[in-house]
Design a protein that fits this description.
about 270 residues, mainly alpha, three-stranded antiparallel beta sheet, about 70% helix
Length: about 270
């Protein structure tokens, strides 16, 4: 989390207008949602070039973020590709790839399920590269300015500000408490780990509530009036090269999608 925040301030695309970067990423995300898998692969590769090549984000951190997000998809893959049916003679499902019997149930994996999982993965991967481009190239403060510019309710922006602040406090609290437990001989053995983790979660909740009360008292003592002002939005010029490349690339991807749709109709 801290590394992502640091990279968002030190990347090579930081001087560019945050409104343009967010608009570009949103357009690519919409395109990735509506296009064929081949176009989604092209979008993922192109947005990776923007993030790693142009913004100069280290591949290590970029791959870690994408991989961590893909773990959530991996957890849902069994529900997509595995089917359960009661055993009824020699019933065989169409497009069955693998099957085995468990008690009175037949567990099968079909090619349709694998194809669906592959399509969803490509769509998710393309969308993740678009979101990662925003995270790595735009600081959170500028992202809030963009959201305010597009008239997101002030209450939502204030909640985002407070949650973002508490994320860092939460990580630091957990890290300090975990190190304290290890220094006292904790976090050893399976049973002890479960017990220490439960204690860690309880104490973390208590400390978080204390931090929240301290923040509330601090805001009230400073005359908080239910409004946390943001810095005014400052748009920066975008080099002509980036404008041309983004427009030409978007049009090429759109033409590729149109060609694929026409080709599928003629088949």
């Amino acid at each position: 989390m801290k590394q992502i925040d640091s990279l968002s301030y030190m990347n090579a695309l930081r001087p560019l207008s945050p409104m343009w970067k967010c608009g570009f990423a949103v357009m690519m995300m919409m395109l990735s949602y509506l296009t064929h898998p081949a176009v989604q692969v092209a979008i993922a590769c192109w947005m990776t070039i923007w993030t790693v090549g142009y913004a100069r984000i280290p591949v290590k951190y970029y791959a870690t973020l994408i991989g961590a997000a893909c773990l959530f998809f991996a957890a849902s893959v069994p529900a997509l590709i595995v089917e359960l049916h009661p055993v009824r003679g020699e019933l065989t499902l169409p497009h069955e790839v693998a099957a085995f019997t468990l008690l009175n149930w037949k567990v099968t994996v079909t090619s349709a399920g694998l194809l669906l999982a592959a399509k969803l993965f490509l769509r998710i991967l393309a969308s993740l590269t678009c979101v990662s481009f925003i995270l790595f190239s735009t600081p959170f403060s500028e992202l809030l300015q963009v959201l305010k510019k597009v008239r997101v309710p002030a209450l939502v922006l204030e909640i985002m500000q407070i949650m973002y602040r508490f994320l860092f406090i939460l990580f630091e609290t957990v890290q300090d408490m975990y190190l304290a437990q290890q220094a006292r001989g904790g976090q050893t053995g399976f049973k002890n780990r479960l017990k220490d983790t439960a204690t860690l979660i309880m104490q973390m909740f208590m400390k978080t509530m204390q931090q929240y009360r301290s923040l509330s008292n601090g805001l009230m003592s400073r005359g908080f009036t239910d409004d946390i002002p943001l810095a005014p939005y400052q748009g920066s010029p975008v080099p002509l090269r980036y404008k041309l490349e983004s427009c030409v690339g978007f049009m090429l991807l759109l033409l590729l999608e149109i060609w694929l749709r026409l080709s599928w109709r003629n088949v």
